[in-house]
Amino acid sequence: MTRNSLGYRPAMPDTHDLLIRGGDVIDGTGATARRADVRVRGGRIAEIGPDLPPEGEPEVDAVNAVVTPGFIDTHAHTDPQVFWDPALDPEPLHGVTTMLVGNCSLSLYPVSDATRPELADLFSYIEDVPRHLFDDHVPWTWSDFGGYRAAVDAQGCATNLAALVGHSPLRLAVMGDDAWNRVATDAERAAMADLLHTAMGQGAYGFSTSFLDVDAQGRPVPSRAADGAEFDALLDVVAAHGRGFVEFVPGLLGPEPMVAAEDLARRCGARGLLLTWTGFSVAEANPGGAQRWVGLAARLAAEGITILPQLSPRSGDMRINWDSSMMFMSMPEGWHRVIAARGADKAALLRDPDWRTTARDEWDRTERAIFPHRNPAALRFVEVSDPESAHLLGRTFADLLVERPGHPSDVLADFVLANDCRPGLVAVGLTNSDVDAVAALLTDPHVIISSSDAGAHANMLCASGDTTLLLTRHVRERADLTLERAVHELTARQADTFGFPGRGLVTEGAVADLVVFALDELHYDADEFVTDIPGGGTRLRRPEGGYRATVVAGVPVQRDGVLTGALPGRILASTD
Questions:
Q1: pLDDT tier at 12, thresholds 50, 70, 90
Q2: Is the distance from CB of 540 to CB of 529 less than 8 angstroms?
Q3: Domain range annotation of the chain
Q4: CB 318 within 8 Å of CB 379
């Protein structure tokens, strides 16, 4: 098993029995904290009360700390990571005990020998996961969700996982190459519906789709070729099971993303289904955009239709991965081709006069992009190989443009070439840099605190630790939320909204997914590069957050900031 950067602490006995003594219980409902011990037997909470007598079970010290339900992260991409890092580092080190995977139209099922390479390519590119890991560490012993679930459950993991079915794999499984470029026939829609029906019967929570993403060649992902009839067929399946929901990525870089979002919301609403989406943020370039989305959610809520934007409190800082990045996806003819190029082709493209002409033109006419080409001051240099560029470390692209006049695209191309085609370049504060605006949205009833993106883009940022940022900045330092309200938002509200029974509360009979921490002991630290990817790869990792213990099914998976090596987590079934 892959060791995390801190190593593993010897595990406590894997008995699923535990006594947490001396703390204040915040039960997840929003109620005021109360002094009580918590006894766990067989992985469930057996007793809550003051001064419970020890019965020989392992103990956790909660004196001057609180005991809360385990935190739930409902937007993650750790589906493949679980096979090379079942500890799912660093999520448990930030109090997370359950993660939702299968988001953004991507899952590792349904799959066949024919679709596996294409599915791995797609997942690897969109979520910036090293491609070789899919070949070397994902076992691919399954064809459907049930098989994936069995494979994860057989090895265990440090958090629970709940899962959606990706729309794009559904299309690939049924339509093959045609999935990319046309609507489905009646027979193909029925076949996709059958696959989703099987997955729902095996415990999947619904499906995810995307109106935004592209692959490494700039092709819109298969889900973007679906029409209304296809969505209706899939939504009918989820509704027929009487449980589940839909997650999607809106076409935020297109001209009218709210139109398609409202259409999908109304289709879901007609069937009584929840729709939730990621990509919601406060953008400096579009300050009123967040409020318009909240306005849409409020207007639909008045009609009985639930669409919940997911908000991360974290600012959108992203390091460019020059081998696999979506930051230039709005520039498919120019800079996106540089990302897709391999080996010597990358430098050849950057030197090519025809490419430079195309790149300049596209740069000038592209209005919206993830890469902040209109705001060079938001691009900071953090690593160079060229001695002549060393003085730029810590400075910005705007500084470089003053020093080296010319078209920004050409100046950037020269800089990338001079630094071995992989300079360290971070886009800073792309979103959520206005903390006051973020705080206002965190407490809006039409917004849910989620969208960490953990497991993705690990060479650009570490998406883990949103829980700790919420508690340190928005509870302890700013008092935007009470501790009880923040815990509710991270636990019971998530469990109730998405249907995770037995979780989200500290109450007798509930599953013993718990966190022990003292608010003044928590710390949210900057992410840092570590070399612990199998095969010697690097990733950005956020250090532990100061939690005393994270407990899954009664078993501590981390103690005092060190993973125990215990793997009690399993895939939650919507059928339970």
A1: very low
A2: yes
A3: 319-427
A4: no
